[in-house]
Amino acid sequence: MTTVTNPETQAKAPSSSRPKKVRERGERGPLASVALHVGLLVASATAVLPPLWLLITSFKPTSEAFSTDLVKDFTFRNYDHVVNDTEFLSWLGNSLFVVGLTTVIGVFISATTGYAVSRFKFPGMRPLMWLLLITQMFPVAVLIVPLYNLLASLGLLNQPVGLVVTYLTIAVPFCAWMMKGYFDTIPVEIDEAGRVDGLNPFGTFWRLIVPLAKPGLAVTGFYSFITGWAEVAYASAFMTGEENLTLAGGLQTFVNQYTSDWGSLTASAVIVAVPAAVIFGFVQRHLVSGLTAGATKS
Amino acid sequence: MRRGIAATALVAALALTAAACGGDDSDSGKKSSGKLSGTVTFWDTSNDAEKGTYEKLAKGFEDLHPDVKVNYVSVAFGEANAKFKNAAGGNSGAPDVMRTEVAWVADFANLGYLAPLEGTPALDKADDYLPQAAASTKFKGKTYAAPQTIDTLALFYNKKMLKDAGVEAPKTIDEVKSAAKKIKSKSGKTGLYLRGDDPYYYLPYLYGEGGDLLDTKNKKVTVDDPQGAAAFKVMKDLVDSKAATTDASDGYNNQLNAFKDGDVAMALDGPWSIEGALQGKEFKGDKDNLGIAPVPGGSDRQASPQGGWNLAAYAGSKNLDASYEFIKYMSSAKVQQQTTEKLSLLPTRTSVYDVQSVKDNQMVQFFKPAVDKSVERPWIPQANALFEPIRLQMEKVLSGKTSPEDGAKSVGDAYRKLLKDYK
Amino acid sequence: MAVDSSQSLAKAAGAQGARGRGPRTGKTPGRLRRSLSTHWYAWAMVAPVVAVIGVIIGYPLVRGLYLSTTDANEANVERTIGVNHIPATYKSVGLDNYTAVLSDGIFWDRLTWTIIWTVSCVAISFTLGLVLANMLNRKLAGRSLYRMALILPWAVPAFVSVFTWRLLFNEKNGILNKILAGGGIDAIPWLNDPTWAKLSVITVNVWLGVPFMLVAMLGGLQSIPGELYEAAEMDGANAWQRFRHITLPGLRTVSSTVILISGIWTFNMFPVIFLLTRGGPGDATEILVTYAYRLSFVVSPRDFAGSAAWGVIILLLLSLFAVVYRRALRKQGEVW
């Protein structure tokens, strides 16, 4: 038990409320402090500027999209336009539906596998681990045409559900891999306690481990959500009707070779990005622990 | 009981996936009375400045056939070909009627995606069509589209800027260069915008040097003849001598923006950009400032490619009857007259050129003779595929990664791979 | 930090005979039955994933492998247009597609660039992530603010960010060139010159990738016991020595995994290239994956067979990379 670091406390450890855990390295000189802050400021500025510029641009009329002024003819027209005059809302709905369903199914069927691989040693485990790793590196190119033909023959092309099936190919191996990493951080003693109480492995998993693994499930789910949210290749190839596009495909119709409606693009991008970023802000602490749990233990 | 949970979960998951595999939409066709009904989905490829007019015209079909709903979808020109193929090849999501670029018709027809139009209402007064416009609608002896508009490239110029620099509209590439020099010394602006991202714009230079892509009669690839390399050289020289500016991406918008804002004095463009250019600050209050002249000639001649748009019906459409009528309507003399009046696009029907408002349209007055002289492209299934190798080499040549000679040679090699029976 | 799982694994599974690499399935019926009775829990638990992978990855994969040995393209595959059914007419060509790809200069050009792209993206974002993590992992005013700012590129959906960068990179009107012009510097053809375009796509990908590295490295740093540093300090080790001998070894497990994963991701990074440059100018920024996509969905006629062959080769390359990488790690004493 003692050797296991609880991800919760681990993430909180460096906060100043628990000074004892922070190692006392040699005091920094003022010069080093300044250098540190300058370095971090530069890095932060680089990280923040592009999204910030996006936000600023979204309040300019399309004709002024490239203006260097911070504020130029401040307007909400772009937002009004994308929400009321374009298919943006249906794209948003499609994306939410496709990615949401993918995530739920993906996490659901992957959880048991992650647990089995984490706890048991069974014939076929090593090949399975390899399979999970290798399927993650499947290039789009090798699957896209067969999947296209498969979906076409099932009549699922241009249907959000078809995209769900496609995204499962990405989500399932990934979720199983992440869940394994998370289960590894849950002490085996808990399983043993369950066994002593007469639970079989399924019972142990369902009653004891899953409740403990909720943060892990959430993180895995969230992570596979943002992966699907940003997918472009399959969405561009499989979704053709304008009302069936997902966001990644739909936004391309604003800015491409022959149109450059930067006003609509930036406004819809902001609408897409802000909720995502806010949720991200909330879960990022868990994300840290979840990811590193996966990473340190894989 | 506990074991059951996992099993139930598994079943539920499978059921979800299975349930995901259902569903299809249906579309009604002709009612028994013979009256048209249902929906016609129309994919339009017109650009930002044009699409409002096109949407209104397409919706006008509903006035003629009140039971038919027109589902107008604007698809960007750059994506339209790929999107249509994705949808048509997978038999889902394809439109009923598609605005099809002239070079796409043979390709789509060859794949079986288009419905032949002979004997359908779609082909109305076919002998009224300009012969070169009708040529692009035929494949293997059948007609697969109705021509809607015809175009070619021309030199757009800013009259004021040229006048300030004391130059006339250039007739040759050499005149472009000397004009650009004067413009630069006068106003500091660049003379010409050269589309380095779109292979279509290679054609006027190629024709100007006396070359062509293919010799379809003798089944010979001609793009790697010396004229092909010479055309690349001319383009490269324009850019290197700073007479022209270029981009490897977003060229359409960059060119239009640069021209209409007065950052460049000249650009090669087609009638589809007239409306967009007139919205810019250089031309907004002063339509007459927009000058149009034939494309500057190379060492051999002045010539530009024939382009345009046709209307085709998807072979898998569930509402072909209404689609044929829709095509008939959209390519009718009445609609063509309106696209000319509102957008200065060129009609494909000879009768429309006799209408007074069309006759009076300055753009038509200029473009009609240019179209008559324009070079017909090879109407073969691979016509559209001929562009990708040019794009690749053009960007390489313009950025100095490849010599004009090697560029032309690579294009030729790519063509021979594409066209198995060509020498 | 972790339980030594190899001890407890077998216990937890209630298995005695499954230690080590036993034969996969028993050769005699008795053995099979025995392993079935010991392992059926585990097998039942992995069954859903195996089934899903088998159906929606396995089938397309096998089909892709098959297509890569034919001359399939959009004009000869089976297709249904409304009521018309057009049967498939493509035929087997053996390994011709593979020899064609491997003997083509394009493949080697693309492979070279893809490797440069992958290595530089991973190396730069890993280094930046490591440096920033070390800067953040200490008492610092405004620490959580910095942290939020630095993670932002990850929080914004990638395709949104890529569009934003296109806005910034626009040669004629983009803000980057306008700032440079303010400093008297000529416009940089960010996406229009082959070399600049390469630098630009790498920049964007690094920008997108640093937060992942940062987060992983921070987690790794926090799992290094502080006592180690205290002890080292008492022994008089300076900052660099502590970093070299405690931090780096402490981060090894995390690093090896994130490098593997992000290497694979970057190798297959489709959206950044596709949305930023479409592989241009020319084919300067085209990586293997975008090229294979171009073959099957952009060029005409769409070359399904060729694209599949590229896909298979990419897959083989990545598998090889993973095997070699794992082996190298195992040699250094990692177990997996």
TrEMBL record, chain B:
Please give one Pfam family short name: SBP_bac_1
The alphabetized UniProt keywords are: Signal, Transport
> Which organism is this protein's natural source?
Streptomyces rectiviolaceus
Keyword Protease attached = no
Its signal peptide is 1-20
Q: Which family does it belong to?
A: Belongs to the bacterial solute-binding protein 1 family.
This chain belongs to the protein called Extracellular solute-binding protein
TrEMBL record, chain C:
Question: What keywords appear on the UniProt entry?
Answer: Cell membrane, Membrane, Transmembrane, Transmembrane helix, Transport
Stated family: Belongs to the binding-protein-dependent transport system permease family.
Annotated ranges, domain ABC transmembrane type-1:
111-325
Q: Give the source's domain of life in one word.
A: Bacteria
Name the InterPro entries on file.
ABC_transporter_permease (IPR051393), MetI-like (IPR000515), MetI-like_sf (IPR035906)
Residue ranges, annotated region (Disordered): 1-31
Transmembrane annotation, as ranges: 40-62, 111-133, 145-168, 199-221, 254-276, 304-325
One Pfam family from the record:
BPD_transp_1
Membrane topology, as annotated, equals: Multi-pass membrane protein
Question: Where would you say this protein principally sits, based on its record?
Answer: membrane
What organism does the record attribute this protein to?
Streptomyces rectiviolaceus
Write the protein's name: Sugar ABC transporter permease
Q: Where in the cell is it found?
A: Cell membrane
